[in-house]
Amino acid sequence: MAEMIHTSMFIFLILQCVRGFLVDSTTPKNPGVITDKHYIAVMDLLMEERQARHLLEQVVTNLQQKVQSLDQKNISKHAQDISALKLQVNGLVATCSLSQTNFGVLEGKFKDLEMNYTLLKDENQILSQDVSILRQTKSVVSMEHLKQQVQATSNKVNQLDYNNMVRNQDIIAISNITRQNQLDVKTIDHKLTQQITSVETEFREKSRNDTVVHRELTEALNLKIANLAANQSTQVATIAQKNYPVALTAWNAGGDVTIGGEIKFNEVKTSTGIRNLSAIHSTGTFTAEEDGVYMIAVTVNSGTNDSGFEIHKNNSTLSQVYIQGTAGDNDQSGTSVVSTELRMGDLISVIASGGSREKGIVHVDKGWSTLSIIKI
Ligand SMILES: *[C@@H]1O[C@H](CO)[C@@H](O)[C@H](O)[C@H]1NC(C)=O
Ligand SMILES: *[C@@H]1O[C@H](CO)[C@@H](O)[C@H](O)[C@H]1NC(C)=O
Ligand SMILES: *[C@@H]1O[C@H](CO)[C@@H](O)[C@H](O)[C@H]1NC(C)=O
Ligand SMILES: *[C@@H]1O[C@H](CO)[C@@H](O)[C@H](O)[C@H]1NC(C)=O
Ligand SMILES: *[C@@H]1O[C@H](CO)[C@@H](O)[C@H](O)[C@H]1NC(C)=O
Ligand SMILES: *[C@@H]1O[C@H](CO)[C@@H](O)[C@H](O)[C@H]1NC(C)=O
Ligand SMILES: *[C@@H]1O[C@H](CO)[C@@H](O)[C@H](O)[C@H]1NC(C)=O
Ligand SMILES: *[C@@H]1O[C@H](CO)[C@@H](O)[C@H](O)[C@H]1NC(C)=O
Ligand SMILES: *[C@@H]1O[C@H](CO)[C@@H](O)[C@H](O)[C@H]1NC(C)=O
């Protein structure tokens, strides 16, 4: 489009130029007379006109070509661009007028402000004067009052200072207490930790000891149980033995026995529960083989004046029997029955006695003198 405008302007200029050539500025001295000068000028003009026409033709041809090329080119896009540009220009114009309006408003405001400033300046001046006047009057009138106020204020400040100091001291004291408390807590914590540790250690040791003790106790108990079991069987055997009756009846073989000597009962007539009978056969004395309570019955038949006997448990006398003072036609018998507790190994013996006699013998008759022992 711009190109087209340019070309049009060019043509317009050329046309203007051509018209210019036809006007002769020099006016002839004699009108109606054609001079050489005129002819040459006309020729020049013709030549120039031809040249100009040629030029014009060229330009027209150019233009035609350009129009053709333009036709070939798609100008609708440019048209769109132009309409868009137009719209933008319109927008700009609107904006510009709006700005102008705003500017006017702002200008008004500025003037308003300027006026207000002037007014304020004046007011300020008046106020300054007022203040200086007031200062002068006040300094005189209320100096005393001011002094009092200052004094009161300074008193208050002092009080506040004092309060502050007291509070500071309180804070320091509280912080001291807090520090002390912290120390105490730390100490207690430390002690507690130590105690807990020691208790833990003790507990651990104790539980270890308990384990050891438990094991030892168990072992001891097991041993005792084994012992008891073993002892039980022996005890059962012993009890069975104890419950088994012990009984003996033996005869004296007959003959004289020296006073103080033992009347022996070697001839076993009946016996129960006695293991070592041969001991009785050889010694004629009863030896207890079992602990227990025994009944002992002894009968001695004798034809000797002043005769008797004693039953002895080991060397202690259990009974004394006086058979007779004077022997007559018939021999006399004496009997004694005693009961005693015997321990294993204790001896039961019958000793001959002679009443008032210290010496001599006691004659014992065979078959009439017996020793009977029974365990109850
Ligand atoms: C020019 O462009 C428009 C859209 O961009 C299209 O519709 C049209 O056909 C085009 N014309 C030529 C001659 O290319
Ligand atoms: C100027 O002062 C008047 C009166 O005090 C007030 O109403 C106005 O808003 C002021 N103008 C500005 C721009 O401050
Ligand atoms: C705080 O403690 C320090 C040292 O323990 C002591 O010198 C000071 O007097 C204490 N202050 C108060 C206010 O108790
Ligand atoms: C553990 O046993 C040992 C040795 O018998 C003993 O010295 C220690 O005191 C016991 N500890 C406790 C906590 O009973
Ligand atoms: C088992 O008997 C023996 C011998 O009689 C005795 O020394 C021991 O103490 C007894 N044991 C128990 C556990 O009674
Ligand atoms: C029986 O007793 C006699 C005499 O006391 C003794 O020598 C012997 O060893 C005993 N016999 C038994 C089996 O105890
Ligand atoms: C009894 O005592 C006498 C001496 O006093 C002694 O020789 C004898 O062995 C004792 N007999 C017994 C059974 O103890
Ligand atoms: C026993 O004593 C009587 C009277 O004293 C006497 O006659 C008698 O001979 C004595 N007997 C003997 C065996 O000594
Ligand atoms: C009796 O004597 C016997 C044999 O000397 C002895 O084993 C026993 O222990 C004695 N008994 C008493 C109670 O002294």
UniProtKB/TrEMBL annotation:
InterPro entries, A to Z: Tumour_necrosis_fac-like_dom
Positions in coiled-coil regions: 46-73, 110-163
Region forming the signal peptide: 1-20
UniProt KW Nucleotide-binding keyword: no
Keywords: Coiled coil, Signal
Keyword NADP belongs to the record: no
Protein name (database record): C1q domain-containing protein
